[in-house]
Amino acid sequence: MKIAIVGPAYPFRGGIAHYTVLLTTYLAAEHDTRLYSFEQQYPAWLFPGRSQIDPSGKPLATVETRRWLTPWWPLSWRRVVNDWKIWRPERMVMQWWVPFMAPMTVWLLAQARQLGTHSTLICHNVLPHEQSRVDQTVVRWALRRADRLIVHTTAQQALAQRLLPGCTISRVPLPSYAAFHSDAWTRDRARAHLDLTGNILLFFGLIRPYKGVLDLIEALPTVLNEIDVTLLIVGEVWGDASVYQARLAELNLQARVQLINRYVSNEEAAMYFAAADLAVLPYREATGSAVLQLAFGLGVPVVATRTGGMDEVVEDGVTGFLVDPGDVAGLGGAIVRFFREDRPIAFRDAVDRDRLRFGWNRLIKIIEQ
After folding, report:
1. pTM: predicted TM-score of the whole model, two decimal places
2. What is the pLDDT, as a whole number, of residue 188?
3. Quick check: 303 and 280 in contact, CB under 8 A?
């Protein structure tokens, strides 16, 4: 089968870019695929981070990529469709995560329909995290043109059904990001490189208000009253980093917390997870979490909140602990319980046993149908 994949890919950074590359790799094992990515992804004024480019030395997987698209330049869209007219794909699979991409998405979906190409939108965020008054209208305008939507959580499925009654929606768990694994980083080597000992907590990923990092900081004094831990906060702050630094100073936590305020490479990500005993995902809200699947893919148990479908992935008391969003006391108590009850080995064994549940084969089968 000929399958066209549209979405961000290396050298652009981020979880969706990783997802696109991994999806293409798995589809290419059985199908004739072409990946259409971006020459430019966002205008500089719209992107709040320091750089859109991945600092990693190489992608998670090597795939041929046609870097042709610019979301605000229609001639680049036409270049992709002209290629489709010659190649004639039977399926088109496109990533959806932000309304900014709506005009390009609508046009490409319309062209796919004219060519008789079945279209699938993989919706990472049906609606964006920070919404404007027009977002629901824009999302309906774009998503209703796809033949099928794929979502990764029950909540996103319900949201899509509410916005688009009668649309065809498939739900499948977010697949594993185990491809980040690196044999170069054992636990001992990672800790020696970072000069760390003892119990290590890890928050990983972009730092935005809805991620709940301040809740984790607020919970840390209670944790330290019970056990000795070091917290690594690894990820670029989108917004004012001084908010976090000031609270760490007020709570006198500078010696117990390392804030690595930058987007790290794939190689460094593997190192930080190798060093960690426990990944903490204190999100106030979410639409899903690639970081959770990254942690599980690398064998690291978690404490997470019951939001964004994480309670559909984490088996409470088996592969991690779940707490309510915004429950600072519960968050601290779960971290203490993890170490007090000597859960690291049992939880890691359970994560390893559960790994097949999040393989890419389920997603591939839905796309093939």
Report:
1. 0.92
2. 94
3. yes
